[in-house]
UniProtKB/TrEMBL annotation:
This is Proteasome lid subunit RPN8/RPN11. The keyword Transport does not apply. GO terms for cellular component: proteasome complex. InterPro entries: JAB_dom_prok, JAMM/MPN+_dom, MPN, VirAsm_ModProt. It comes from the Bacteria. Keywords: Hydrolase, Metal-binding, Metalloprotease, Protease, Proteasome, Zinc. SMART domains: JAB_MPN. Residues 18-149 form the MPN domain.
Amino acid sequence: MSNPNPPTKQSFDLTDRITITTDAYDMMLLHAKQRLPFEACGALAGSLPGIQQHAGIQITAVYAIPNEAPNPNRTFAFSPDAWVNAYYRMQKNRQSLVGFFHSHPTAPPVLSQADLAGLRHSGAETCWILSLANPDSPSVCVYRQLRGQWLPSMFAQVRV
Ligand SMILES: [Zn+2]
C-alpha cells in the first residue's frame, strides 16, 4: 500500500540540524541590504531530512522574489509570477523548497502577527528573518515549523 504522506514530513523532527551554505547566507543578506528601506523576501531551497538520511535540513540556494506588498517598508508579499517561476526553477534544479526568508529593515528578527498569518498555509519548514535594524551587524533568526508551531532554532553556516 502506498503512503500518501511524503517521507520528508514524517522524518522531520527537532533533532534535525539546520545548515546553510555560506554562499547562500551571504546572498540572502546582500539581497536584504540592496532592498532597503523595503523588506526583501524570497525562498530557500536545498534538501530536507528523508532525502538524505541524517543530513538534516540543508539550504544551498536562495531565490529572491520581488516584494509586491502595498506598504513594502513594513510587510512583504511575493510577486505571484516570480514565485511560480522560482518554484519551477527549484524543481528543474532538483531542489526542495526548504523555507522562506524576509527582512525587517528596522525591527528585530521576531515573527510578527502578519508573518505568522502568512506562514499558516505556506507549507514552509523554516522561516528566516534578517533584521537590519543595525546595518553594520545584521541579525538572523530562523524559526522552524513543528506541528503548526513556529519555534526559534539554531542553525550553522557551512562552507562547501
Ligand atoms: Zn516579518
